[in-house]
Amino acid sequence: MRKIDKSIDNLLSTKYKQWLNKSTADGNVPDGTNRYYYDDVAMNLYNCQSGVCAYTEMFICPMELYSETNWIEGKYKIADTTEYKRIDHLGEMDHFDAAGKKLNYWNWDNLFMIHAKINSIKTDRDTISYLKPDIAGYSPEKYFDYDGQTHRFIPNTEIDDPAMVDEIRDMIDNVLCLNHGVVRNERRDYINGLKDKQKRGEALIIDRFFTSVNWALSE
Predict the structure, then answer these.
(1) What residues contact 212, with CB distance under 8 A and at least 6 apart?
(2) Are 211 and 186 in contact (CB under 8 A)?
(3) Is 200 contained in some domain?
């Protein structure tokens, strides 16, 4: 689960940003019933995440949908030239901190796009703030190791605090679903395919599972 840069100063969806700032300043924080800016937020998140699930790093959205060319004057509008429809992705919007969802549904800082199946499993379970992938100082190396034999994420073996190890393991298996069976199998096959190409001296194009690929190919 790699670091994600979600700097609000670089948002493509400036109309959404203006709307959120004005609503907050007026004390009228919008709830989830207002869907006018959903595509603006979702596609801007995909742009930050390179089209992969923020947690599992599975590929869930084609680049054509989140290309910067799809924003016109700060508002998302899918280009007429793309073969994809705006719904042709496999993600859903997730609120990392479930409690924050009730306080400010459209708070950019709390939002990620994740695989729809993972979102249905995660639901509103408690999360650990230090594992939020866009916070300052976050890096996967601090908290995770990767077992290249089983293709499972595990807590960093250098962490001495047993309670912290248990917290991270619970997040890996039950909340972020990094070791979900389908995810793990797809990750294994993808990495093995890259290793075969590497042995043949072929150029590697990596578009998913960035964290595990980086560790697996450097072994």
Answers:
(1) 57, 146, 151, 153, 187, 191
(2) no
(3) yes
Domain boundary among 72, 91, 123: 123
| Ramachandran sector of residue 172 (left: φ over 0; alpha: ψ -120 to 50; beta: rest) | alpha
Phi and psi (nearest 5°) for 37?
Answer: -105, 15
152 in Cβ contact with 195 (< 8 Å): no
Residue at 135 is within a domain: no
Q: How many domains are there within the chain?
A: 2
The ranges of the chain with pLDDT < 70 are: none
Q: Is the domain of 94 the same as that of 61?
A: yes
Distance CA 24, CA 105 (A): 11
Nearest to 45 by CA among 104, 83, 89: 89
Q: For tokens 């995770």, name the residue.
A: 144
Distance CA 137, CA 161 (A): 19
pLDDT in tens, 72-105: 999 999 988 889 999 999 999 999 999 888 888 9
Gap between the Cα atoms of 184 and 153, Å rounded: 9
**Which distant-in-sequence residues (6+ apart) come within 8 Å of 187 by Cβ?**
151, 209, 212
Task: Return d(Cα 169, Cα 21) in angstroms, integer.
Answer: 37
Domain housing 163 = 140-217
